[in-house]
Write a structure and sequence with these properties.
single chain; alpha/beta; TIM Barrel; 9 helices; globular; binds pyridoxal-5'-phosphate
């Protein structure tokens, strides 16, 4: 089990350009398995639940060079905890939450790296900005002094064909370019967090800089 994880990591890592950051998504994956992934060279781990992440981070505190990425929907009442536990928040999905995080980051003396989660196609099952909403909120986001806004994150709706998934990823890339062209003082568009086990190759082709992989590394979650 453990050795097969290291083999899978080696194979997948070799299939992605070295410049793309591989984030191992370890929701529902126990700490021993995270250790195996660490031993295989992974340093970026993604979690989507605050409490689960807190427990595992305590168990793994000796692995001090891990970068933790929050990838789940963040409720405002867990925002402070999220800032304490995570270096990155990929799933910033509304202006109010951004402003709350900005205020808390100031109080805590941290400056988290964040991605803005955008929905290229309507998807009632996901949170995130629609494109017009995001464009409207950019000036206010640019005022969030304590957030390092680094790029966009997207998850295509379930059930799309490959060509449609590629369209979502390419549109996200175009949107990032369009935003970057406005030369904001704070907002940067260096990162595209896109691609999961089923579609990461399409995401990489469309310019993803970070892929978030769970199942393909660790098997199916229960
Ligand atoms: C679970 C999850 C992933 C990983 O999905 P897999 O299909 O298991 O690779 C990536 N991103 C987010 C936001 C997730 O919730």
């Amino acid at each position: 089990m453990i050795s097969s994880i290291s083999e899978r990591i080696t194979t997948i890592r070799a299939s992605i350009p070295p410049s793309v950051r591989l984030i191992a998504v370890t929701k529902q994956v126990p700490s021993e398995v995270i250790r195996a992934a660490y031993a295989a060279g992974i340093r970026d781990f993604g979690e989507n639940r605050i409490q689960e992440a807190a427990t595992k981070q305590a168990e793994l505190h000796d692995l001090s060079d891990i970068t933790w990425h929050f990838i789940g929907h963040l409720q405002s009442n867990k925002a402070k905890k999220a800032l304490e536990l995570f270096d990155w928040i990929h799933s910033l999905d509304n202006l109010k939450l951004a402003q709350r995080l900005d205020e808390l980051a100031q109080q805590l003396g941290v400056s988290p790296q964040v991605c803005l989660q955008v929905k290229i196609l309507p998807d009632p099952s996901k949170s995130g900005w629609s494109v017009p909403e995001l464009l409207t909120d950019l000036p206010a986001l640019n005022e969030c002094k304590n957030l390092q806004i680094q790029g966009l994150m997207t998850i295509p709706p379930l059930g799309l064909k490959d060509a449609e998934i590629s369209h979502v990823f390419n549109s996200t890339q175009e949107l990032a370019k369009e935003i970057a062209a406005k030369n904001w003082t704070r907002i940067k568009m260096r990162e595209l967090s896109m691609g999961m086990s089923g579609d990461y190759q399409l995401a990489v082709e469309a310019g993803a800089t970070m892929v978030r992989l769970g199942t393909i590394l660790f098997g199916n979650r229960s």
